[in-house]
Each structure stands twice: as C-alpha cells, then as structure tokens.
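Tokens for chain A. Residues wanted.
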C-alpha cells in the first residue's frame, strides 16, 4: 500500500493580537492540497507473461532474460526444456496410430458380425429344427419300427432254428432207415447239426440284441434325442439373444474406440499447442521484468517466485511470472489512497508531480478517475494522466510524489482548529468582548487544512478570538 501524506499551502490567515493566545479575524486565501506517492506504470500495451497450457504442466526454465533487460523484437525472454514433452508427443502419436488401426479393425469386425449374424442364427434354428424333427420322428415312428424290426429279427432267428432243426430231424430219420450209414450221410448229418448249433447260437445272440435294443438302446436314444431337442432349443433361444447383443456390444466397443481416438486426437492437439509455449519471445522492442504488473500494482517477485525464476526452475502455470513492457507504451500514474485522501479528490483535478533526484522537472498530472469503493486492502485506486518532460524518461515502476489542489478560496475566514469547540450549542469559538471578557459564539465550520479550519458563518472580520 502506498502511504499518502498531505502538504498544505496555507497563508497566514490571522494576525496576532496583544498576546499569542488571541487572534484577530481577517480574510486570507485558503487552499487545500493533497500529496501522495504514485507509481509510473504502462497505461496500455503491457503484456503479462504466463504459461497457460492445455495439459502439460512441467515447464523447466533453460533460458531466462535478466530482470530489467532491454530487449528487441524476437529476442527469447524465457525458454523451457522440451525433452520430456517431445517424448510424450512421440508416444501419443504412436498410440494414436495404433488406435486408428484398432478402430479400423473394430469397424471391420462389426461389419462382418452384422453380415454373418443372420447366417449364424439360421444355423442355430436349423439345428434346433432338425433335432425336434428327429425326436418327433423317433417318438412317433422310428422307435416303434425299430421295436418291430427287432421282434421280426428275433422271430426270423427262431424260424431259422426251427427249419434247421426240422431238416436235421428229417435227415436223421431218413438215414436211420438204412442199416448202414454211409460216410457221406454222416458228413451231411454233421453239417446239419452244426447248422442247428449255429442257428441256436444266432437265436441266443438275437435274443440278447433284442432285449438290449428294447430295454437299453431305444430308451437311451429316446433320451438323447429328447435332450438334443431341448439343448438345441435352448442354444437357439440363447443365440437369438446373444447375437443381437454381440452386435450391440461391438457397436459400443466401436463407439468407445472412436471416443478414445477422438480424445487422443484432442490430447495430441493440446500437446502440440502446449509445445509452442516452450519459448516466449519479445513481441516488440521493450523491457523485460520479473514479476507482474496487475490491477495497477507493480508486484515484485515473492520468495517462492524468485526461487522458480532461475535456470532449471519451474514457474507455476496459469500465473503471471514476468512482464513485457513495449517501448511504445505510455506511462501513467497509479496510486492507492487512504479513505480521507480519496474522499477529497475528484476526477479532472490537476496538479504537479516530482521525481526524486529530478525535483527541478515539473510534471503536469491530472486525476482521470478514482475508485468509488475501496479494494480488499481498504485503499482507493486513483489513475492519473501525466505529461512527461521531453528530457525526462522514467522507467516502469518509478515512484513520484503527486500534489493536487483540491480546494481553493481567494479570501475566507479561517481560525486555528483548536480554537473551535463542540458543545451543546454546536461548534463555538470564544470571542473577546470590549469589556475584556469572552463569550462563546456559534460558528459554521468549513474545510480544514492543517491546523486551520475555514469558518463559513458566525464570525466577523476584526473580531478577536481566544485560542488555546
């Protein structure tokens, strides 16, 4: 906060009477002047330097112009290490290329899935339909036919055995009538006996097959066909749900890949933009300062910022850390005043300013605007336009003392402020009477300048008042 003080140009407004505590009321010029310190800052064109990245946050200084350096257009003010961001850019570009391939593959997979899904679903329907038909045919026709076929096969085996037995019986009776059995007859009988034995064995096996067919194979096949019909129906129902769901999931996957691809493109674009921030150049001829000029205040770097404004330092992002002032920038004055000083000032007031070391230079100033309410620190901002002498070129941040004439009367009555007392009758002064005594006279107060207060009514020229 810039402290303000008041300097008063008050002529002698009273004459001493017979002793120091008595003053005679006389009209004299009365003026009030306010004096305060102001800072020379760029009126416009000032550029706050800060890094405002989209995503990258690690900015390590490798080049830094010195504080207060005069620079030419294009000179590097601040440079940052690019190694890590360049690696990241390479990684993101590779990832983006791989993502594009995955996206293309997913699009192809979805297209293929959409094209083949009807065929797959039809295959499930066909298998289920065949299983149902097979089970129905077995239940309604083939099982009974198989049972009849088994019965018929068993019956045929029985008849074959009976035929062989009958033939053996006939041969035996026929050859038994002869007294002597010839060798040929013996062979024929032996063969026939073998045929009967074979028929008996075949019948026995047929009985086993018949029993197994009726009691095991056909019931087992009935269960298998029924289960197959059931399972294929379940598989078909599941496929009717799964295949459309698979298509939707593939679409979601594809959308996710598209989103990821778009985000990676955005990330790459942001990184590429951030990469351009790694070198800050002077936009014109001018001056480079560490710290910032914000809201009319010259903010010198704080200890934390000073630590970061070094080679290998890391200034905070999205915060001004330096200022560029072009040589073409016009310097104005900014002051932050206490309430009493601010209340006394009005726009368009004029005055003079002096620069320490060049008190001989007269600098004309005019109050262009003043805040109507205080800032957070309780001060009121005042902006002044200034006409700088040709032979005087102050630098940004220079401090001047400004003096503004805020009140002026060519001739008015003023008395010592301590002579005025507030009481039951309001403001009064002690007026000396002709008999040597004093009496309290009500007066109307005006403005105060230093130890003098203007009296607007209640006193007459020539009266003598007592002052403590």
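Reply:
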């Amino acid at each position: 906060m810039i402290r303000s003080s008041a300097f008063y140009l008050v002529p002698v407004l009273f004459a001493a009477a017979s002793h120091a505590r008595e003053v005679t009321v006389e009209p004299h010029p009365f003026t009030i002047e306010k004096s305060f310190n102001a800072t020379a800052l760029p009126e416009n064109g000032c550029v706050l330097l800060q890094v405002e990245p989209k995503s990258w946050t690690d900015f390590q200084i490798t080049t830094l112009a010195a504080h207060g350096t005069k620079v030419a257009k294009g000179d590097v003010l601040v440079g940052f290490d690019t190694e890590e961001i360049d690696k990241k850019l390479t990684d993101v570009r590779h990832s983006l290329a791989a993502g594009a391939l995955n996206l293309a593959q997913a699009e192809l997979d979805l297209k293929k899935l959409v094209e083949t899904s009807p065929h797959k679903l039809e295959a499930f329907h066909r298998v289920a339909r065949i299983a149902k038909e097979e089970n129905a045919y077995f239940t309604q026709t083939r099982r009974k036919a198989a049972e009849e076929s088994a019965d018929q096969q068993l019956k045929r085996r029985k008849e074959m055995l009976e035929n062989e037995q009958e033939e053996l019986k006939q041969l035996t009776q026929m050859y038994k009538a002869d007294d002597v059995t010839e060798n040929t007859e013996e062979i024929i009988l032996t063969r026939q006996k073998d045929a009967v034995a074979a028929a008996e064995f075949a019948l026995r096996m047929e009985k086993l097959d018949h029993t197994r067919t009726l009691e095991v194979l056909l019931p087992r096949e009935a269960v298998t066909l029924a289960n197959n019909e059931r399972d294929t129906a379940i598989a078909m129902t599941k496929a009717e749900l799964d295949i459309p769901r698979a298509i939707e999931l593939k679409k979601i996957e594809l959308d996710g890949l598209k989103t990821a691809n778009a985000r990676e493109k955005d990330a790459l674009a942001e990184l590429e933009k951030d990469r351009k921030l790694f070198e800050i150049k002077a936009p014109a001829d001018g001056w480079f300062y560490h710290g910032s000029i914000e809201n009319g205040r010259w903010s010198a770097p704080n200890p934390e910022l000073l630590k970061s404004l070094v080679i290998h330092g890391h200034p905070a992002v999205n915060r001004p850390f330096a200022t560029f002032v072009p040589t073409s920038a016009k310097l104005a004055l900014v002051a932050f005043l206490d309430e009493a000083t601010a209340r006394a000032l009005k726009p368009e007031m004029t005055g003079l300013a002096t620069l320490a070391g060049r008190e001989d230079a007269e600098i004309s100033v005019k109050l262009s605007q003043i805040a109507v309410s205080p800032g957070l620190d309780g001060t009121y901002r005042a902006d002044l336009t200034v006409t700088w002498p040709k032979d005087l070129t102050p630098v940004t941040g220079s401090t001047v003392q400004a003096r503004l004439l805020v009140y002026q009367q060519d001739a008015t009555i003023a008395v010592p402020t301590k002579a005025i007392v507030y009481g039951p009758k309001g403001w009064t002064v002690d007026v000396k009477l002709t008999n040597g005594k004093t009496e309290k006279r009500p007066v109307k107060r005006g403005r105060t300048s230093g130890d003098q207060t203007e009296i607007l009514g209640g006193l007459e020229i020539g009266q003598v008042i007592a002052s403590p």
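Residues 83-176 form the longest helix (94 residues). The chain has four helices and 24 strands.
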